[in-house]
Amino acid sequence: MIVAGILSPIENVLSQVLTWLHETGGLSWAWSIVALTVIVRILLVPVALRQIHSMQSLQLHAPEMKAIQQRYKSDRQKQSEELMKFYKENKINPYAPCLPILFQIPIFFSLYFVLKNAEKHIFKGSPDSALHWLGLVKITEPVRDGWGPTLVIVYAASQLISTYLMSTQMQSNAQKYAMMILPIAFIPFIIRFPAGLVLYWVTTNLWTTGQGIVTRRFMPKPVLPPKRSSRTPPKETGPEPAAAAASDSKPATPAAAPRRVRRKRGGRPRR
């Protein structure tokens, strides 16, 4: 297959890491997959942090972006140009939330091809117990066999929780509902996968859930700078300019005319 040929370098790396974890680390093949998942997620931590910051920035600037969309709703091209200009001015990467998923897709499919042929090449001669996880599932068999459906239930629960933590950063309700429905929609396809692949997925979902809880509690949210409006008074540079401005703003009052004194004949002036 073309896809398998393109992913061959990643497959070789995953096979070597799994072999090292099993032979040097002393882990069973099933727990080696769990350890491999943790290693992959640790390497993706910088990407995940960028994802979180970008989603927070998108959430904070959502009213301004909505205003731009409403202003240019009749001109899609102008709307896209203004939004890209807005992203650039505010240093927002609208594609950053998708980066962790994009990085994991080739790893996911590479692990699928590794497990598909692993029993003939990598796991050859290994005891059957080394291929079992908690004595429930065999990582090379389809997840629909034996206790595999239990792992599918764990997958669905972990996926819903991790998706919920991500969906709270989204403004659109349609996006939230779509993200919550997708995990359930994937189940008919997942039951055909090897149990080891679902184990990888469950582990990464649990990591995402823990990561979401930690970042919510400890990572500060970015704060927008205060906005100036037409009602915001200008800054005063000193008392003299302020006084001068006050004097200039008021019209000058004319000086009072001197009072005329009428003299009375034959006597003192009358005041």
Tell me how many strands there are.
Answer: 4
Derived from helix and strand composition plus strand pairing, the structural class reads mainly alpha
Tell me about the biggest sheet?
Answer: 2 strands, antiparallel
Q: Give the low-pLDDT segments.
A: 228-232, 241-247
Mean pLDDT: 75
Strand order of the largest sheet: 1-2
Which range does the strand content fall in? Answer: under 5%
Order of helices and strands: HHHHHHHEEHHHHHEE
The Cα radius of gyration reads: 35 Å
Number of domains: 1
Q: Determine the fraction of residues in helical runs and give it as a percent range.
A: 55-70%
Question: Care to describe what's here?
Answer:
It is a single chain. The chain is mainly alpha-helical and 271 residues long. The chain has one domain (2-218). Helix content is 62%, strand content 3%. It is built from twelve helices and four strands, in the order αααααααββαααααββ. Strands 1-2 form a two-stranded antiparallel sheet. A two-stranded antiparallel ribbon has the order 3-4. Helix 7 packs antiparallel against helix 11 (195-218). It is elongated and about 130 Å long. Residues 228-232 and 241-247 have low confidence and may be disordered.
